[in-house]
Design goal:
Layout (H helix, E strand, L loop, with lengths): L15 H9 L9 H13 L11 H17 L4 H13 L23 H13 L5 H12 L25 H9 L8 H15 L8 H20 L7 H19 L1
Helix pairs in contact: 2-4, 3-4, 4-6, 4-7, 5-6, 6-7, 8-9, 9-10
């Protein structure tokens, strides 16, 4: 299994033993039986309402899982890393409050954390016992790597909303891309996602006109391109080229 991104450890509540296990590079235990893995994934899905929020809902999670499975099949990830990827996809929006910044959601549990941090903690609780400490930490790192729109202190509503999480390992980069891979479903899917994301981030300020919608989509697709480019050395060259072509096809549709 790839070395987990140890700067993703959230707080002392995760335990000093988990911290030491990750940094010492101790070997992970054998993978649990496949039925346990699949039950864990299904349990994570069933805990998320199909349309609980405009964007961060079960439909989105199912899409991310599907893309993660596709990406894993195209790469040279070993069995443990593939399992980490799919588990992280299953939990990456677990307990999402429906607002981009959880800290601004007054009725959300643990609103001292970001949505990704909360999901990572919930995943760790769910995986404790059946999965090794290293796998649990790797899942958390991958979840945190999906952090979006929290890196620029100049545009955040509050300075404490800043989060530095960045995908480092192949698993983290693949999940960060799978999380925004709607472009593979075409321009209509991107338009729908853009409207729904806007509803969550600014519920009192819906998209007012076509120009605002196009500008928001262009910005989002620029972000998507950075996630594709981060996977340049992970995917086969022909598939990497296909991803860029698909992205540009969507851009062309939007431009016209």
């Amino acid at each position: 299994m790839q070395s987990p991104n140890t700067n993703h450890i959230l707080s002392a509540s995760l335990g000093e033993a988990l911290r030491n296990s990750a940094t010492a590079g101790s070997p992970a235990t054998a993978l649990p039986p496949n039925d346990i893995i699949e039950v864990t994934i299904q349990n994570a899905l069933e805990a998320q309402s199909p349309l609980s929020h405009p964007y961060h809902n079960r439909k989105h999670v199912e899409h991310v899982i599907r893309r993660s499975r596709e990406f894993a099949a195209l790469t040279q990830l070993n069995a443990e890393d593939q399992t980490v990827l799919i588990l992280a996809a299953s939990f990456h929006d677990y307990g999402h409050c429906g607002v981009g910044y959880r800290q601004l959601c007054t009725n959300a549990p643990r609103n001292d954390l970001s949505n990704e941090e909360y999901a990572a903690l919930c995943a760790d609780e769910a995986l404790t016992g059946a999965f090794s400490p290293q796998m649990r930490l790797a899942v958390q790192g991958a979840i945190l790597a999906t952090s979006y729109a929290q890196h620029d202190k100049n545009v955040l509503p509050r300075p404490d909303l800043y989060r530095p999480y960045t995908p480092l390992s192949a698993v983290e980069k693949l999940l960060a891309l799978a999380d925004v891979a709607t472009f593979l479903d075409g321009a209509d899917a991107i338009i729908e996602d853009t409207r729904n994301i806007k509803k969550e981030r600014h519920p009192q300020q819906p998209i007012q006109n076509t120009e605002e919608l196009l500008r928001t989509m262009r910005d989002f697709l620029d972000y998507v391109q950075t996630k594709i480019e981060s996977c340049a050395q992970i995917f086969p060259a022909d598939y990497y080229s296909k991803l860029l072509r698909s992205l540009n096809e969507v851009r062309n549709v939007i431009a016209h």
